[in-house]
Amino acid sequence: MTKIEVNHLNLYYGDFQALIDINIPIRKNKVTALIGPSGCGKSTFLRTLNRMNDLIDNVRIEGEILLDGINIYSEKSDLIQLRKNVGMVFQKPNPFPKTVYENIAYGPKIHGIKDKHKLDEIVEKSLRGAALWEEVKNRLDKPALGLSGGQQQRLCIARCLAVEPDVLLMDEPTSALDPISTLKIEDLLEDLKKEYTIVIVTHNMQQAGRVSDYTSFFLNGEVVETDLTDNIFSKPRDKRTEDYITGRFG
Ligand SMILES: Nc1ncnc2c1ncn2[C@@H]1O[C@H](COP(=O)(O)OP(=O)(O)OP(=O)(O)O)[C@@H](O)[C@H]1O
């Protein structure tokens, strides 16, 4: 089942066209990896999925992105609701300079939840969802910035989960982490996709192979091909994909 359908998406930074006629179906409860050489538009594309590019000057977008069949770029689209439904985790963990608890409770509070008991529940559930609860349950009132990098990144995932999104966007979420923390996040993705639809940008080909069900290969602002990850890695249809995954360029 398709969760997000991208139709004829073009994106321009001023005169420069960074995305060219992108068409990708993003399947519900699957992990879709976006791969491709530096500067080919992966992050730009990821940001179109929750309209983060709206925050950048001089960006123009054509085409449509349907989330559950509704165009997120239509005038009627509710941006606050969209960013709640489509959460984002960045390359570098970016917890707020607050306690572990406050990092998670912040979003639900903004969305109107005030009851302490309910907030406690959300904090525990979100931290469990991000496989972090056991490590932090005794230090909820301690600064989040005192956690290790890998813990901080799982905290950022928990912070997304706290507002009950449907989709998680991850922009190279493990590139700043050590191998063990990376493995923890990769394992976590396997669990998270039971409830969420996940789109992940990764430079790491092995990681794409390990964690994703589908892969889209980007090159110079275009999608060369999208297929089951197994097919992309074992029998790509396009020569350029083959050259990239076998390390001939990029
Ligand atoms: N805010 C911006 N203003 C102008 N051009 C931009 C902006 N952000 C990105 N670009 C350009 O758009 C193109 C795509 O960039 P993007 O960051 O999406 O690529 P990427 O595939 O994610 O790269 P990387 O793997 O290095 O992160 C690049 O040529 C980049 O220079």
UniProtKB/TrEMBL annotation:
Gene3D superfamilies: P-loop containing nucleotide triphosphate hydrolases (3.40.50.300). Residues 4-245 form the ABC transporter domain. Pfam families: ABC_tran (PF00005). GO terms for molecular function: ATP binding; ATP hydrolysis activity; phosphate transmembrane transporter activity. Keywords: ATP-binding, Cell membrane, Membrane, Nucleotide-binding, Phosphate transport, Translocase, Transport. GO terms for biological process: phosphate ion transmembrane transport. It is found in: Cell inner membrane. It is a peripheral membrane protein. SMART domains: AAA (SM00382). One of its GO terms (cellular component) is plasma membrane. Its main location: membrane. It comes from the Bacteria. NCBIfam families: 3a0107s01c2 (TIGR00972). Part of the ABC transporter complex PstSACB involved in phosphate import. Responsible for energy coupling to the transport system. This is Phosphate ABC transporter ATP-binding protein, PhoT family (TC 3.A.1.7.1). It comes from Geosporobacter subterraneus DSM 17957.
